[in-house]
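Morning - DQA inputs below, output right after.
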Amino acid sequence: MPIIHDLTHNRKKSVDVEGSINMAEILLLNGPNLNLLGSRETNYYGTDSLSSITESLSIKATKAGHNLTYLQSNAEHTLLEWIQTAPKKGTSLIIINPGAFTHTSIAMRDAMIAVNIPFIEVHLSNIASREIFRKKSYFSDIAIGVISGFGSLSYHVAMYAAIEELSRLEI
Ligand code: DQA
């Protein structure tokens, strides 16, 4: 029997008294070694740095009327703290590349389920076409969707999907 996680109750944007939609908070989380983007295994991850990617995502979010907060950490406990505090910060949607924690972190999976914030899983490389241990993701089955294999474009596709998803939220 499949377990269905109810992702509905946090899927609300705030509205002001006139009923117009306020900006949504989007959180972009990046896991271990993604600070090395640009120089790390460029055959898989390309040559764009994480700061150049986050900068242009931030511009995209702002243009759509939203706010992007981002964090990269090599430490699982730091990522867990950011996930756990996301509801208090009013986060409506998370875009996450858990890096190698994709394939190992039951703790981060549990945290995503606990906060019940809809999220999009992103990978630069196509994890399904690499080593066997990368085929398993602890996030994919509870994500809204997964974007994998388009290099830095994966993040842009995720932001596009996030903006579309936010526009469909109940208000
Ligand atoms: C990655 C894929 C993971 O398997 C790897 O450990 C990473 C990056 C990607 O973006 O393709 O660090 O998440």
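Note: Residues 80 and 90 are 16 Å apart (CA to CA).

O.
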